[in-house]
Structures are given as C-alpha cells and as structure tokens.
Amino acid sequence: MASSRKKMVLILLLVLALRLPAVLAASRYPERTLWPDSAGYLSLTHGLLEGEGYHDAQNTAWDLVRTPGYPVFLASIFLAFGESMAWVVAVQLLLSVGVGLMLLALGRRIGSEGAGFVSGILYAVSLNPVLWALAILSDTLFVFLVMLAFLVFLQGVESRSFWRLGLGGLLLGLATLTRPIGLLMIPLWGVWAVACRPCWGLEGRRGRLWAAAAIFVAGSLVAVLPWAYRNQRVRGVFNVSSIAVWNLGRYQAPEALARAEGLTLEEARQRIPISRIPQEGDVRRFLGVILAYPRAYLEAHLEGTRRILSEVGQPNLAQLLGVSYTGSGVFEALKQGDVSAALTRFASVMQGSRRGWMFVAVVWSLVVQALTYGLALLGAALLLRKSGPRRWLALLVMLTVAAFLLTPGPVGNGRFRLPAEPFMDLLAGVGGLRLFTASKRGIRALGISSAARLQGSR
To answer: What DSSP assignment string belongs to 37-81?
Structure first.
C-alpha cells in the first residue's frame, strides 16, 4: 500500500511539473501576466514595500476593496527574489501542485485512495488553474488556502481535535483575507460541523458539536475581525472588504437596469453612482434597482453563471500567446450544422501557429471540462446513495461548489470557477474510479467469455 501511494504521488508530481515550463513565458513576456485587477494589488504591494503602509499611491481606497492577503504574498516574493513576475508565477504554479497533492489526501476521505488519485490527475490536466496561475491575481493563493483549510478542518472533525478545528478556521480566515468570498464558507462549514453527527461518531452529545463549530468559527474570526476593525479605524467602514457592495453597484444593479430598459452597461452605470468607500444607503439603493427588475436581474445572473461554467480561458490564452482574440468561428459553424464552414475556418486557424495552439488548448479545456462535469455528477450520485459520513461529506462538497459557482452572478467568468474546480474534481474522482472499475470488469468478463468460447470450439 505504501509503495502504491508513493507511485501515485510521484506520478502526480510529474504531471503537475509539466506546468512549470509556463514560467518561461512569464519570464519572457512579464507584461502578459498583468490584468486590470493586477494594478490595485501591485499598487498596494508597493505601498507595503516602500514603508507607506497599506495604501496605494493615489489613495483611491483600493485598501478597502482589496484584502491584504495577496499584496502581502507579492511583497514577500518581491523581497526574496526582486520584483519579478516570473517568480510570482513560479510560486503560484507550485501552489497549484500543492492543491493537486491535497486532492490525494481529500480523495481518500471522500472515496478511496484511487478516487484521490483520479481527482489529482483531473486537476493536473485542467488548463484553467494553469492559466490563472500565470496571472498576477489572487485566485491561485486563495484556492491553495481554501483547500488547506478544508483538509485541516476535516482532519479536526475526524480526530475530534479542537485545536485542528481552530487551525482550520484560522486558515479559512487567511483565505478570506485573500478573497472575501471565503466569508461564505465560515458559516457553511460551521453549520455542517454541527449537523453532521455521524461524522463525529457521537451519540447524544450535541453540546460538544456546538463547541467544535464555535472553535472553528472563532479561528476564522481571529484572522478577519482585526482587519474589519482596521477598516473601521482607517475608512470608517466595519467590514472585511467593500468588494461585495462594489460588485452590487458596479455590475449587478447596472446589468439589471441595462437589460430592463435597453441601455448600454455604461449608460446604466451613470444612473447608479458608486464609490469604493460604501456610503450609507448604498446597499438599499442597489438592491432597490434589482428588486425593481427581478426578471432582468435573473437573466443577467444566469448569463454570468453560464460564463463561469463554460468559459475556458480564451482571453487568457490570447494574451499569453500575443494574438488577438476574436473567436475562430469553428464552434459557431458547428452549432449551425455547417460542417463545411467549420472545416474551412479550422484550416484558416491552424495556418497561424499561435492561433493553432490556442485552438488546441480551447478544445482540450472543453473536453476536460465536460469530462469533469459528467464524472462529478456520477460521483455525487454514488456518494449520496451511501450512508454515514461519506454522504455528509459529499453534501458539504456539493454545497461548497454551489456557493462558489452561484454567488458571482453577472460579474462571473471562467476565473470564478477556479475555487470550485478542486471540489468538483473530488466528486469526479469518485465517479471516474467507479467508471474505470466497471470498464475493467467488463473487459475482464469479455476476455473470460471469449476464452470460454475459444475453449468450447476446440
């Protein structure tokens, strides 16, 4: 068993190590790692390095929007290796390797060692984590911290260890200081810890469950409350980040208004003023717009969710390869049933080597994505049929996936799928292992049947 486990880890490391050549691209073209949101993180990082505190040079309140986790991460790398985007990418890719290895340990808990291996392989061959690890954005660090928090949290539940639960909460708090969407996981995982009595193996000891959940939540608050207090002192707003209010007023309310009244998004934004520092009544004002046009908002939310589920990083690929992204038209022609036009456009795309590579990468991503979704649905169905802790664990994973995928709404794109991917891979690992086992048995049965017929004919 130990030898088998070592082989699995070695194979997974080798597969994930194939991501590291991407560092060469970041080293050669550092400007291609920068995105619009990168500017805020880098400005705050420079403020830390230059001894100005957690402020940007223009004092545009980025410190209230961007939590300190990622700027501190960037500052640490810049101090150690100089201001090199290639080193940031290298560390982020290594964190991605760490996520794959954690899937091995988590897979054993939700299914089996084999399921964990399949989960790790699926994460290894997915391009979405690679593409966003090549960007100066907080997503890769956030995913690593969330998965580490999840692993430690489950270890605390299994071992009935309060200190592990507190540590898991602290790690989740640090993840929240990297991306505020982590706040959703604090009550979600805490309520699950209270509800999942079979996971603890306890009978009639409800008080201990509440104590365990309280320690987990307290660990999270140890990380996030000091930052909320800092924002109150500096900006007069007691919250972890104003990004939720910003998204509500910058994207969600304008999308509803634009769809309902036939405006452009910019025209809708001009009618809904907003600042990075939330003002009294902002949330009520933005929600009022959404409630005035519920159908339009629902359409915008569903469209954003569709982008989260389906986008495979075409803009990222175009930027990294240095080509303009206008779409190949191949998939559009296939949707219309025009195979001839699809082949013609495919031939045109493949004439340019960079656009050809981009097309191959998009197709690869679509195949892996479809495979993951199918196997995840199969794995979820298999686990929900079980009894005891595994069913409860599957439910927690599914709720976590839903929270990550459904919360962003109109602002969503493929980037926002990234935190949900390793959790989906956990479910897909169970489904993939079952499919592989069934196929193996079928082939074996077919071989035995063929051998029997051959023996009979003699």
So the answer is: THHHHHHHHHHHHTTS-S--TT--SHHHHS-SHHHHHHHHHHHHH
